[in-house]
């Protein structure tokens, strides 16, 4: 049986069904959703009721107010671009500011890149000094992007939007707006990193940042993730737990590598990081030079904190310990400037970690796992340098590692 649909004139897009030339008591409405033609079968069984039903779902070519989309986005649970948002407090607050600024404007007026500077200029004076104004504005614009992405699920046929125009190509509204990738803040060699660490070690009050720098290079952790490492971690589910491999297992691994004529990876233990993302639980591989770093670090930590050291975070006394102290990023940038190095950020250490493994021929999937990321594309596009380049190292080629400032010989 062949079914055909025939448009009924002046019905608002209602089509009637025919089967083998016979009229059926079925009606459908033709829609365009997200730029694609689609059909919706109506419940009505008479032409009059079908036209009435169609009026309730018929396309609306006129863009609706942005406030209507914000309202629907909130009712839907404030979805993000890739799934539900975990913490709704800040997105809801941002949505209120967006709703206030774009009051009375239609969605097509908001969904333009040239609409963003005006919002930025309006929003910044409302942010208290010292509260990360640029970051707050970026978070607001991320919320705007989530709202417009939700609008694409509703479609322009219903007065919303088919495309989120502000997502791709949006620059961050910061002083460094022209710099996008973390790898542009990456130091060029281990010698630079250790020189920076030595410079930071000179300031006794902020030596903790020298250790943070060395750990960031060796683990690929973000600054906030480093602050979660604790000495009293008792299980693999706690950030900071260290598991040393049995000596016989290390010997077996080394022998197996030699037998297969592969380079031994040197792993003798693992530092668990517990920064789950998409179900990934990464750890940092402990090799000989990392073990030496840990030994010197704990010696310094014991001397600094005494009997309380065992129950404190690795980096107790950093910016997270209280107000008035300069952040890791500010101290690192100042040290780089004093030494005449290009601008370097803590996130650049994450790029160094990824690029080091990339140039050592480690698979992108493995690098992503070590960094706690699910997306291999992110490793390739943002962190790791895809161009051929000299291999990077964990220790300087010239001179001794910076952590040897705290060896037993110098105690």
Question: Order of strands across the widest beta sheet?
Answer: 1-2-3-4
How would the global form be characterised?
elongated
Q: Supply the helix-strand structural class.
A: alpha+beta
Query: Alpha-carbon distance between the termini?
Result: 92 Å
By DSSP, the count of extended strands is: 7
**Beta-strand proportion:** 5-15%
Helicity, in percent?
Answer: 40-55%
Count up the helices: 15
- The overall pLDDT average reads 82
Order of helices and strands: EEEEHHHHHHHHHEHEEHHHHH
Task: Please name the fourth-level CATH homologous superfamily of the largest domain.
Answer: Intergrase catalytic core
Rg, nearest Å: 29 Å
For the record, the count of structural domains works out to 3
Low-pLDDT regions: 169-179, 319-325
> Main beta sheet, described?
4 strands, antiparallel
What does this structure look like?
This protein has 15 helices and seven strands. With 411 residues, it is an alpha+beta fold. The chain folds into three domains: 3-57, no CATH class; 66-154; 182-319 and 326-410, hpI Integrase, Chain A, CATH 1.10.443.10. The strands form two sheets. It has a four-stranded antiparallel beta sheet with strand order 1-2-3-4. A three-stranded antiparallel beta sheet has the order 5-6-7. Helix 3 packs across helix 6, helix 13 packs antiparallel against helix 14 (364-371) and helix 14 crosses helix 15. The radius of gyration is 29 Å and the shape is elongated.
């Amino acid at each position: 049986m062949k079914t055909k649909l025939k448009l009924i004139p002046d019905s608002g897009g209602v089509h009637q069904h025919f089967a083998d030339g016979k009229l059926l008591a079925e009606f459908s409405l033709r829609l365009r959703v997200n730029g694609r033609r689609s059909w919706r079968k109506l419940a009505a069984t008479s032409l009059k009721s079908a036209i009435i039903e169609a009026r309730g779902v018929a396309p609306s070519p006129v863009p609706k107010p942005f406030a209507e989309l914000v309202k629907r986005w909130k009712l839907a649970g404030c979805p993000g671009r890739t799934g539900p948002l975990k913490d709704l407090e800040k997105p809801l607050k941002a949505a209120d500011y967006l709703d206030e600024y774009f009051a009375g404007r239609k969605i097509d007026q908001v969904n333009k890149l040239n609409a963003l500077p005006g919002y930025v200029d309006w929003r910044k004076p409302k942010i208290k000094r010292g509260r990360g104004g640029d970051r707050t504005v970026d978070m607001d614009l991320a919320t705007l992007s989530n709202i417009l992405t939700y609008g694409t699920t509703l479609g322009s046929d219903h007065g919303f939007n088919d495309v989120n125009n502000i997502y791709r190509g949006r620059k961050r509204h910061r002083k460094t707006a022209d710099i996008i990738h973390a790898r542009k803040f990456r130091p060029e060699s281990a010698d630079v990193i250790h020189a920076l660490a030595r410079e930071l070690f000179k300031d006794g009050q902020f030596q903790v940042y020298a250790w943070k720098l060395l750990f960031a290079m060796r683990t690929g952790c973000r600054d906030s993730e480093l602050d979660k490492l604790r000495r009293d971690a008792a299980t693999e589910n706690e950030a900071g737990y260290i598991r040393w491999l049995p000596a016989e297992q290390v010997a077996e691994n080394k022998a197996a590598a030699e037998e297969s004529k592969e380079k031994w990876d040197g792993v003798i233990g693992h530092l668990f990081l517990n920064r789950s993302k998409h179900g990934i639980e990464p750890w940092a591989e402990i090799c000989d030079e990392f073990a030496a770093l840990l030994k010197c670090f704990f010696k310094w930590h014991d001397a600094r904190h005494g009997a309380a050291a065992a129950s404190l975070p690795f980096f107790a006394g950093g910016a997270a310990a209280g107000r008035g102290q300069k952040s890791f990023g500010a101290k690192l940038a100042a040290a780089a400037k004093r030494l005449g190095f290009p601008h370097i950020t803590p996130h650049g250490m994450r790029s160094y970690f990824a690029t080091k493994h990339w140039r050592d021929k480690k698979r992108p999937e493995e690098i992503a796992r070590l960094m706690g990321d699910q997306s291999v594309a992110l490793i390739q596009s943002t962190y790791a340098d895809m161009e051929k380049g000299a291999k990077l190292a964990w220790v300087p080629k010239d001179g001794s590692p910076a952590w040897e400032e705290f060896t037993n010989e110098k105690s």
